[in-house]
């Protein structure tokens, strides 16, 4: 069954004409489920918790939630779902932290 699903995905998906598969540079294609804004915000909260001191939040969870909402609002959405999932969260979280750090220096 797994082989049938894999074959269908390779032959009908975006990777159908890709040389990544024909040259065996890509072992597997794993489709991702779309994420809603609340899921993206959870990803952002997790990234910001790792940077809490750089972002000026320390142990303040309200600050982290507020900044995570700011990050989640910068992500592109197609209707109800994120276009890129959590892929761009790290970059956006770093940008928010950098901006907060610059404001604190001034």
Describe this structure in words.
It is a single chain. A hairpin with a 2-residue loop joins strand 1 and strand 2 (81-82). It contains 5 helices and 2 strands, in the order H-H-H-H-E-E-H. By secondary structure, it is mainly alpha-helical. The mean pLDDT is 78. The chain has helices at residues 2-12, 19-22, 37-50, 61-73, 89-105, and strands at 77-78, 81-82. Helix 3 crosses helix 4 (61-73), helix 3 crosses helix 5 (89-105) and helix 4 crosses helix 5. Strands 1-2 form a two-stranded antiparallel ribbon. It is 56% helix and 4% strand.
Described by strand count, sense and barrel closure, the largest sheet is: 2 strands, antiparallel
* Total number of strands: 2
How much strand content do the residues show? under 5%
Structural class from helices and strands? mainly alpha
Low-confidence stretches are none
Give the SSE order as H and E letters: HHHHEEH
Indicate the multimeric state. Answer: single chain
Rg over C-alpha atoms, rounded to the nearest angstrom: 18 Å
What's the helical proportion of residues?
A: 55-70%
Mean pLDDT: 78
Enumerate the strands of the largest sheet in spatial order, edge to edge or round the barrel.
1-2
- Specify the overall morphology: elongated
Structure annotation, total helices: 5
Distance between the termini: 60 Å
